[in-house]
């Protein structure tokens, strides 16, 4: 997955609308479905927990289906890109201990994966205005650059491929 610069304002606007839309759809859909089920199958004890739960589950499945169906729509471009980037960074994070160990030994693919993780994190943090940890990331990036220079490894995020993680 290539790192690309995206329009922060458009991303935030679309993400907020998707979140609000999903929240409203969940509230309205689960209420409508559960009320329909309660009307069709009333419970003499007065407990309708299971119908409410079924309403929430069905509505959640419908929302998940709709998000998946429309993930290629132009409106969702930035939102889906960030979701996919977070998944890619999560895969690296799960292997970070092994990557750092191999990176200290000069493994160029491990260094590249760590570099991609740092660059992707920087992009995400800027999009989400999470600049508190940027100084810490800059220190880690400088350390990585020193190790890469020590082993004469050129790091370019465009060279990263998720397949490298399989060896770690």
What is the global morphology?
Answer: elongated
Kindly report the average pLDDT value.
Answer: 93
Main sheet attributes: strand count, strand direction, barrel closure: none
- SS elements, strand count: 0
Give the number of domains. 2
Strand content: under 5%
Using the CA coordinates, give the radius of gyration.
22 Å
Low-confidence regions:
none
Oligomeric state of the chains?
A: single chain
Estimate the helix proportion, in percent.
Answer: over 70%
TL;DR of this structure?
It comes from Pseudoalteromonas arctica. The protein has 168 residues and is mainly α. The protein is built from six helices and no strands.
What's the topology here?
Blueprint: H1 8-40, H2 49-69, H3 77-94, H4 96-104, H5 108-127, H6 134-150
Describe the structure.
- The chain is mostly helical and 168 residues long.
- It has 2 domains: 8-73, no CATH class; 79-167, no CATH class.
- It contains 6 helices and no strands.
- It has helices at 8-40, 49-69, 77-94, 96-104, 108-127, 134-150.
- The protein starts with 7 loop residues before the first helix and ends in an 18-residue tail after the last helix.
- Keywords: Membrane, Transmembrane, Transmembrane helix.
- This is DUF3087 domain-containing protein.
What are the key terms here?
168 residues; mainly alpha; 2 domains; elongated
């Amino acid at each position: 997955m290539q790192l690309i610069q995206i329009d922060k304002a458009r991303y935030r606007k679309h993400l907020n609308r998707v979140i609000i839309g999903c929240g409203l759809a969940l509230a309205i859909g689960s209420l409508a479905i559960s009320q329909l089920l309660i009307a069709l199958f009333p419970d003499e004890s007065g407990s309708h927990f299971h119908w409410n739960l079924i309403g929430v589950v069905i509505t959640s499945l419908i929302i998940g289906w709709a998000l998946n169906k429309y993930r290629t729509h132009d409106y969702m471009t930035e939102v889906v890109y960030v979701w996919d980037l977070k998944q890619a960074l999560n895969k690296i994070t799960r292997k970070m201990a092994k990557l750092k160990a191999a990176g200290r030994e000069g493994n160029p693919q491990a260094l590249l994966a760590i570099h991609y993780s740092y660059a992707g994190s920087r992009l995400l943090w800027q999009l989400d205005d999470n600049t508190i940890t940027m100084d810490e990331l800059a220190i880690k990036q400088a350390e990585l650059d020193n190790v890469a220079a020590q082993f004469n490894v050129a790091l370019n995020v465009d060279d990263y491929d998720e397949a490298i993680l399989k060896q770690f």
